[in-house]
Design brief:
By secondary structure, the protein is of the alpha/beta class. About 30% of the residues lie in helices and about 20% in strands. A hairpin with a 4-residue loop joins strand 6 and strand 7. Helix 6 crosses helix 7. The radius of gyration is 15 Å and the shape is globular.
Length: about 160
């Protein structure tokens, strides 16, 4: 799997799914419509400023709240290529992997705007601004395959 490199957007703890995609926007299943409102509950201008390849870095319990599958979909469609947090809500973590959005449990140091390069296969995160390197648990081959295929359904269909 290729390395992921992008700009950091920092968020705190307990970012729940209603903050990620407020319930009033759940009348649509169009991923682009959802992406236009992503993180609106926490940072109103996020959707208009995030770029393809950017990275979310958060504290504890990212994705808590409801099990709405639209939350990771809105994040991915907005352009975020990976989420790194100190911990995730279990269902959010699973939903993210299911749609092919990598999520990493790690405690790393970075500031908003720093550039990170993440190597899932070798378990290395480099902060290019600070010149620091963090070792993480490398993703297993089966997980890399699911992510490379764009999620669990695509992976299943490919394997069939």
């Amino acid at each position: 799997m290729k390395k992921i490199k992008g700009k950091v957007w920092k968020f705190g703890s307990n970012i729940d799914t209603d903050v990620i995609i407020p319930g009033r926007y759940l009348r649509t299943f169009n991923p682009m419509d959802l992406a236009r409102h992503v993180m609106e509950g926490e940072r109103e201008d996020f959707a208009s400023k995030v770029k393809k390849g950017d990275i979310i870095l958060a504290d504890f319990n990212f994705g808590c709240g409801s099990s709405r599958e639209q939350a990771p979909l809105a994040i991915k469609t907005a352009g975020i290529d990976i989420i790194i947090a100190k911990s995730f809500a279990r269902i959010f973590y699973r939903n993210a992997i299911n749609i092919g959005l990598p999520v990493i449990v790690a405690d790393i140091e970075a500031e908003e705007g720093d550039i990170l390069e993440v190597d899932l296969e070798n378990g290395i995160i480099v902060n290019e601004v600070k010149g620091t390197t963090f070792k993480i648990e490398p993703f297993k081959d089966f997980m890399l395959n699911i992510l490379q295929d764009g999620g669990l359904v695509n992976h299943y269909l490919k394997e069939k």
